[in-house]
Amino acid sequence: MSGGKNNPDTCILCGAPIKVVHPAQTMHCAICGRKYTDVVLCKEGHYICEHCRKDPGKEMIRSICVRSTSKNPIEIATEIMSSPVIAFRQQEHHSIVAASLLTAYKNNGGNVDDFKASLMEIIKRGTHIPYKIQLETGTSGGAMSAGIFHSVLTGMNIHNKEGWAEGAMIVAECMTKISEIEGPCCCKRCTFTAISVTAQNSEKYYNVPMDIPEKIRCKYTKRNRDCVKANCPYFPA
Ligand SMILES: [Zn+2]
Ligand SMILES: [Zn+2]
């Protein structure tokens, strides 16, 4: 994929050259779906609005989660991670775990008062987790993101008693499972593990069971030169 996220002359979705049309056309943004009148699109017909061009990863997470009807957070995360605007090891993984869990929680019948506001809060908090947290702290942004899901869902505040301990337990359970697999760290493996552990415990902690696949098969092994292959439980057989 030669998508030009850092190249203003190429499309961030397909890498095709950008063209300018006259007169201006009314088009739907290929990420957020909103309608705009503009003069710039790619030769394959992708129009990306100015707002989405600024932060395509975050907009892609928001757009997929708002539209998704999936009850399976692994499926939701896979759809997001398969987008060309989500690069390997990109910081957005720290939002993807929580956003996929919240979306699946809602789609499994869980009550979320204001889903879009909660989703935006999750995406914002995901950006608070440093890009290299794995290397700098020996933890995992994926596990922290499960904690973001918990704290947004439960509306955690500074005086909260039980919610805090539960959140710490969920993050600890994610970390324990992540620690069972050898390094180097992998954004996809941490994402799959944190989502699976939290989804498996969703009924216990939140009274809402979530669908997860019996076997998770990673589609991204070729994009990771450090992939531990058969030593990763998600390596496709
Ligand atoms: Zn394109
Ligand atoms: Zn847009």
Task: Describe the protein.
It comes from Methanorbis rubei. InterPro entries: DUF5714. It holds the Pfam family DUF5714. This is DUF5714 domain-containing protein. The protein has 237 residues and is mainly alpha-helical. The protein folds into 2 domains: 1-54, no CATH class; 55-231, no CATH class. The chain has 10 helices and 2 strands; from the N terminus they run ββαααααααααα. Strand 1 (18-28) and strand 2 form a beta hairpin. Helix 3 runs antiparallel to helix 9 and helix 4 crosses helix 7. The longest helix has 18 residues, at 162-179. The two termini are 25 Å apart. The structure holds zinc ion (ZN) (2 copies).
Short description:
It holds the Pfam family DUF5714. The chain is built from ten helices and two strands, in the order ββαααααααααα. With 237 residues, it is mainly α.
Assign the structural class, choosing from mainly alpha, mainly beta, alpha/beta, alpha+beta, or little secondary structure: mainly alpha
User: Roughly what is the average pLDDT, rounded to an integer?
Assistant: 92
Given the structure, what is the number of helices?
Answer: 10
Cα separation of the termini: 25 Å
- List the domain count as a whole number: 2
Hey, roughly how much beta strand do the residues contain? Answer: 5-15%
Segments where pLDDT lies below 50 for 5+ residues? none
Helix-strand topology string: EEHHHHHHHHHH
> Which compounds are bound in this model?
zinc ion
Largest sheet: 2 strands, antiparallel
Apparent shape: globular
Report the count of strand segments: 2
Rg, rounded, reads: 19 Å
Strand order of the largest sheet: 1-2
Helix residue percentage: 40-55%
